[in-house]
Write a structure and sequence with these properties.
It holds the Pfam family Arf. This protein has six helices and six strands. 31% of the residues are buried. By secondary structure, it is α/β, with parallel strands linked by helices.
């Protein structure tokens, strides 16, 4: 069975833990605590074991992010499209990551997350402009609009993960 290490990064409160838990259980969790250390969770998907490294997103814990990317098969980065107040902070953190992972050559699944929120279209466009992924990230990029309230968007993440070889 193939084993894939998937590192999941984002700012705190962006919905990353809820997304990982939904991928594993297919249930939307409504109660959760902040991620304070790496949470490692496994999902059997076809002939693969996907090992998610769910990283803490609080500012004082982000220093651990880069070490987690060593030997990663994929990076998933989430941005909360409903939280434009933190857009610049998220862009800054992603730029730091992108500058440091060039040599790792790992694919990126970039999730514009929480797209189920009302009146999100303008926010989504603003987020896409702010990140300018094509000019920033040198590896293969998959851009998705995701919500745990839309199973098709989560299935798209799974389909991408099935394309990766160990």
């Amino acid at each position: 069975m193939k084993r894939l290490k998937i590192v999941v990064l984002r700012l705190d409160r962006a919905g990353k833990t809820v997304l990982v838990n939904y991928l594993i259980s297919k249930k939307v969790e409504t109660q959760f605590r902040p991620t304070l250390t790496f949470s490692i969770k496994r999902l059997k998907l076809s002939d693969r074991t996907i090992v998610f490294w769910d990283a803490p997103g609080q500012k004082n814990l982000r220093g651990t992010w880069m070490d987690s990317l060593k030997k990663a098969d994929c990076l998933i980065y989430l941005v909360d499209v409903g939280d434009l107040d933190r857009l610049n902070e998220s862009v800054h953190e992603f730029h730091q990551i992108a500058q440091n992972v060039d040599s790792l050559d790992i694919p990126l699944i970039f999730c514009y997350h929480k797209v189920d929120l009302p009146y999100i279209e303008e926010n989504l466009e603003e987020c896409k402009k702010a990140f300018d992924l094509e000019g920033l990230y040198n590896g293969k990029i998959f851009q998705l609009n995701t919500s745990v309230h839309n199973s098709d968007s989560i299935s798209a993440v799974e389909e991408i993960l099935l394309t990766f070889d160990q």
